[in-house]
Write a structure and sequence with these properties.
With about 550 residues, this protein is an alpha/beta fold. The chain has 21 helices and 15 strands.
Length: about 550
């Protein structure tokens, strides 16, 4: 019976682990990020498991109090009374956890980015198992049911009852146990990562890759779009491999090099993301890029960087990681990037939307709902480009890629052909097909202060009533409320209907909207994206233009 109860409790505990494992994965297995999530979302972290623990404790005290009140009856029942109490506590434990697990299963089934049982996730899951053994040993002694205890000989039911209560508490503390488990396995993960990094380094040092052109891309925003644009343009002349989707971490780059890089590739494009200082430096130390482009520097990930100076320092790690013969590509329209350009002594290119003093610049820019046309001026002359991409910020991304193409000696015709073939990038100002007469613009990927303003400016060019669905922006640190309020003002001056997702998070946006002449009857606040979609369905009509601006990761949803 004891073995059966232990097995039952272990299974229930391990079934509760994936929820926190998912959050840890979304936080890139960073303990500081996971702890920050707990402090910002204590209800999501502890509410349900706390209720099940209080339910079990409550049943224990209720039954104990009842047995004391009904002393004569309990004496008549004898040992049967204890069995009834144990049964009620066990049933409470089982029912409470069944409800929790069913809710968790439903939430994770609809997750935007589901839990992936990667090798690292499996190791962390196993680490939870070992942490539990340690905790169980310590708590068993504390609760008098350890190896040296004889309680099971004198009061078998009391022993089983304490096991249930102990595991109910362990389930309640899973978020904290996850931190312990991650710390426990951290040295092993560091060793494994270093092995894989060294393998990637050895691959790039092979003689068949001595002529491989390695390009690094980073920026507070625009880096993924720039990567896809650059891949398309350079493919007019070279065999190109780029890191897929948003693979921009150290291990993401390592995996692409190990699994996808082939001797026939002539160019490798590495997207380099960062959440803290030295993240980009770490990637540069094995990629050793020949060309580096910083697309932008702004108030992104300030929760981890704390201040903009740290963002500048980290993005500059890409330029510092170039060889002496490396080429730096920087936008003049971004103040921080231009300052880096002025300090840089390597070969460098400056690009701009309008500045004629830049190496690559545009003129006669015409942006419409159908795309953009513009003339490009480089040292090799002037030529006109047409793209399906929306917005001037995409024109700027294209100009940065053209600067790299010029450095790699592509002809004007090759560049022009490459630009014309660029397709809208998923979730980045992508116009989606509809069958109800509306225009839907999907700009759901990782909104930021610059990109969100650009999106609103683009929507203003469309005809028809304009509707925005947004949860606002995150990871902006101390400036988050201020920037979201400013975003609200921009919405108020450019949209007709606002559907805000998240009652607490969107308060600054609503405040900003209300400071404009926006009709407050057209502000709708809903708790989830699902509710936002329902509300949208009741409001839309043919001719409407609908902008989905940002879609928060699961760990940021209220």
């Amino acid at each position: 019976m004891i073995v059966l109860i232990y097995f039952f409790c272990w299974v229930i505990y391990l079934m509760n682990v994936p929820k926190m494992l998912h959050i840890m994965q979304l936080e890139s297995y960073q303990v500081d990020g996971f702890f920050r999530w707990i402090t910002k979302n204590p209800k999501k972290a502890f509410k349900n498991t706390g209720i099940q623990f209080l339910s079990v404790i409550g049943m224990f005290f209720l039954t104990t109090f009842t047995l004391l009140i009904l002393k004569n009856l309990s004496m008549q029942l004898g040992y049967t009374a204890l069995i009834i109490q144990f049964s009620l506590i066990t049933i409470t434990f089982f029912v409470a956890n069944t409800i929790i697990l069913s809710k968790d299963k439903k939430e994770r089934a609809t997750a935007k980015k589901p839990l992936k049982y990667t090798a690292r996730a499996k190791r962390l899951y196993l680490s939870n198992f070992f942490i539990m053994i340690i905790l169980e040993t310590a708590f068993s002694e504390f609760m008098g049911i350890g190896l040296n205890s004889t309680i099971y000989e004198t009061n078998y039911i009391e022993y089983l009852k304490r096991i249930i209560i102990m595991y109910s508490f362990f389930i309640f503390t899973i978020p904290l146990n996850m931190i312990l488990a991650n710390g426990f396995i951290h040295p092993t993960e560091e060793w494994i990562n270093e092995r894989y990094i060294n393998k990637a380094r050895r691959i790039l040092k092979k003689k068949e890759y001595k002529d491989l052109i390695k390009i690094g891309i980073t920026g507070s925003y625009g880096k993924t779009s720039t990567k896809f644009i650059l891949e398309k343009i350079l493919s007019e002349k070279y065999n190109v491999l780029a890191t897929p989707n948003s693979y921009n971490t150290t291990m993401g780059n390592v995996r692409v090099i190990r699994e996808q890089l082939k001797p026939e590739h002539q160019v490798f494009i590495s997207e380099m993301g960062a959440r803290k200082i030295n993240d980009i430096k770490e990637i540069c130390e094995f990629v050793h890029p020949d060309i580096g482009i910083i697309t932008s520097i702004g108030p992104q990930h300030l929760e981890t960087f704390k201040k903009i100076e740290n963002v500048v320092k980290t993005k500059k790690e890409l330029i510092d990681g170039l060889s002496e013969k490396g080429i730096a590509i920087l936008p003049k329209d971004n103040e921080h990037c231009f300052n880096i350009y002025k300090e840089e002594q390597r070969e460098k290119y400056l690009y701009s939307l309008s500045d004629r003093g830049s190496d690559v610049y545009a003129k006669d820019i015409k942006v419409s709902p159908a795309g953009s046309t513009f003339k490009v001026v480089t040292k090799n002359g002037e030529f006109e480009c047409t793209t399906k991409l929306l917005g001037e910020h995409n024109v700027q991304n294209i100009l940065g890629c053209i600067a790299i193409a010029v450095a790699l000696e592509l002809t004007n015709e090759e560049i022009k052909a490459g630009v014309s073939k660029i397709e809208p990038i998923e979730h980045r100002l992508q116009i989606l097909p509809t069958n109800n007469g509306t225009t839907v613009i999907d700009d759901a990927f990782n909104s930021n202060p610059v990109g969100s303003k650009m999106a609103l400016d683009i929507v203003k060019k469309f005809e028809g009533r304009k509707i925005i669905i947004t949860p606002g922006m995150v990871e902006l640190g101390a400036e988050e409320e201020i920037l979201n309020k400013e975003f609200g003002k921009q919405i108020g001056n450019s949209m007709d209907i606002a559907i805000l997702v998240g009652t607490k998070r969107t308060e600054p946006i609503a405040e900003g909207i209300k400071e404009t002449k926006f009709d407050q009857m057209n502000i709708f606040v809903v708790p989830t994206l699902e509710e936002a979609t329902k509300k949208l369905g009741s409001l839309t009509r043919a001719g409407d233009v609908i902008l989905f601006e940002n879609d928060l990761p699961d760990n940021y949803n209220e």
